[in-house]
């Protein structure tokens, strides 16, 4: 065997290794691509197709304002290091956590992207599909008032079911949350509500949706539903 033969043999091995690596990378990327496609298709089963504001899914949390009897010059809030902060509005940590659980969970699956916004930022626009977090949210109450909405809602501090005429109240033992999905009959927009009676209920609801939305797709497909925990 000559030197040239050895060089050719080595070059052949190197070429085969490089080709194998490229093949593996291509196959892995194709698998990831199709997994994302399938996951995106499943996600659209539950959140719908019309997420047209900036082409992003909006996860909405309520913005809270100070009561009229409190003035901003009283510095009613403090930051993490104890400095008094002048502010006229705020958002709930529990509402934000619920929204962040969901956003982190669906980031791989939703090609359009998602954003967490407050109800005050996009009010009064409602002609799009959204996920509404929390009972004080304008968009949760907007859905409650829609004709033909007959799923769980919050009334007088309790979760109520208008079909079974049952209600659930928070106590020292239990907090409750519900997840409902409602399809608007005219616009075909999809509204998903995640509401807890207490702060822990709302956070738990966001975490449940974030970790179980694929199970919800299997169970309900693209139909409306309401579930209580």
Radius of gyration: 25 Å
Biggest sheet strand order reads 6-1-7-12-11-13
Give a short account of the largest sheet: 6 strands, mixed
Q: Can you give the mean pLDDT?
A: 82
Poorly predicted regions are none
Beta-strand content estimate: 15-25%
**In DSSP terms, counting alpha (H) and pi (I) runs of 4 or more, how many helices?**
5
State the end-to-end CA separation.
Answer: 76 Å
Written as H for each helix and E for each strand, in order along the chain, the element string is HEEEEEHEHEHEEEEEHE
Give the structural class.
alpha/beta
Oligomer: single chain
Shape field: extended
Number of strands: 13
Q: Percent helix among the residues?
A: 40-55%
Summarize the structure in words:
The protein has 229 residues and is of the alpha/beta class. 40% of the residues lie in helices and 23% in strands. The chain has five helices and 13 strands. The strands form four sheets. Strands 6-1-7-12-11-13 form a six-stranded mixed sheet, with helices on both faces. A three-stranded antiparallel sheet has the order 8-9-10, with no helix packed on it. A two-stranded antiparallel ribbon has the order 2-5. Helix 1 packs across helix 5 and helix 2 packs parallel to helix 5 (199-220). The protein starts with a helix and ends with a strand. 27% of the residues are buried.
Q: Can you tag this structure with a few keywords?
A:
229 residues, alpha/beta, six-stranded mixed β-sheet, three-stranded antiparallel β-sheet, extended
């Amino acid at each position: 065997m000559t030197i040239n033969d050895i060089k050719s043999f080595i070059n052949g091995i190197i070429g085969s290794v490089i080709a194998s690596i490229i093949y593996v990378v291509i196959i892995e990327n194709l698998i990831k691509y199709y997994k994302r496609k399938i996951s995106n298709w499943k996600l659209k089963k539950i959140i719908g197709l019309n997420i047209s504001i900036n082409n992003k899914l909006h996860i909405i949390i309520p913005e809270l304002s100070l009561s009229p009897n409190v003035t901003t010059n009283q510095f009613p809030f403090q930051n993490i290091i104890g400095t008094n902060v002048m502010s006229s509005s705020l958002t709930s940590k529990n509402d934000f956590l619920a929204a962040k659980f969901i956003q982190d969970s669906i980031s791989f699956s939703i090609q359009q992207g998602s954003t967490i916004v407050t109800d005050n930022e996009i009010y009064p626009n409602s002609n799009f599909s959204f996920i509404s977090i929390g009972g004080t949210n304008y968009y949760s109450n907007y859905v409650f008032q829609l004709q033909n909405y007959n799923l769980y809602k919050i009334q007088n501090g309790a979760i109520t079911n208008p079909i079974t005429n049952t209600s659930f109240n928070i106590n020292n033992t239990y907090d409750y949350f519900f997840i409902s999905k409602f399809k608007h009959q005219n616009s075909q927009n999809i509204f998903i509500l995640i509401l807890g009676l207490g702060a822990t209920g709302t956070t738990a609801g966001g975490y449940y949706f974030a970790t179980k939305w694929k199970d919800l797709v299997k169970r309900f497909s693209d139909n409306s539903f309401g579930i209580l925990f």
